Amino acid sequence: MSALTVAALAVGFVLLVAGGESLVRGAGRLAVTLGISPLVVGLTVVAFATSTPELAVSVDAALSGHPGLAVGNVVGSNIANVLLILGLTALIAPLLAKSRIVRVDIPIMVGFSVLLLVVALDGVISSLDGLLLFAGVVAYVVATVIISRRRTADPTGTAQDEPTVEHAEGATGGQSAAGAGTPESAAGAGTPENAAGAVDVDPAEDGASHSVLKSSAMVALGVLMLVAGARLLVTAASDLAAAWGMSDLVIGLTVVAIGTSLPELATSLVAAFRGERDLAVGNIVGSNMFNIGAVLGITSLITPIEVAAGAIRFDLPIMVAVALALLPIAFTGMAIKRWEGLLFAGFYAAYIAYVVLQASDHDALEPFSTAMLWFVIPFTAVWLIVLATYELGVIRGRRQVRRHLVPDE
Rounded distance, CA 340 to CA 349, Å? Predict the structure, then answer.
């Protein structure tokens, strides 16, 4: 392994992080201008933006003759997104899980994960499979944006489930309910009409246009940095695989997966620090769906992707299991608590340990696998089932109390 390889790997990571940050900031500002709630921004715009590194890496890897890197990148990123990123973010502050995420988005993410496993069972993700995956994520985005816009247009439909744009911008009270959630109120420009109904020329329009141009430039710059970083990362990762005697799949599951997940990590940590904890969860859930539907979908439309037998037997089922585990975790208390974040981070460390032990054929692999398979995983599964059952009982009890306190009209 030469110094040039290490330098290329480091520069590639830096470009991916910087490009992801630029893309997220620009895309987020454009979304706020459209009056979309922070939760939907996280599920769609920010999720797509932070998934762009995976797209660039996977396409480049597939075209360069490293299909294992393409698959390992997406599968490893999805596992890292839930276990590592949500785990670390929840350790900073408990993450809110809106009822919409628990009822709709996480089950859809589980569905995408299962669909990927099914289409990969024959050892290849064909162009037809890619079209199915891509069509699914497009349908999800269109439906999500349409529903969000309808709720934004109807003030009575937004308050219960999704935060308004003022919440995303950190605005406080003082604005009227009629102006809540609109792009004008988010920009601080007020309503464009005066009390008499006459239309005034808004002096902030030129500033808004300048803001749109600036945000678009940030998006373009982010894409350029992501493409360049992805190229460097794939080249360096391939050299590492050859130098260490490890397969493209293992490198993709570990080094590249963590590297391309850094934008999600940065976004979620910033969101947690700023108090936008629902956006942090939405970013991860949406990013996982984009990774499967858009990244592997588009990549397989360009060229069919071969899937290694090891990924079908182990890594893809682990990805499905992780997606399933997020559902009861988010459902209990409608939040991801600190101890749950610690549990996720611990499982990610165990997963990486298993991948490395398996790749190196270490003697500790067999006892480690036995302990995980027959003790840790079953115990955790039973624990999650008990917690979910308890939460269902609490919810039923609250509903019964509410029925007694509030008489039927």
Answer: 14
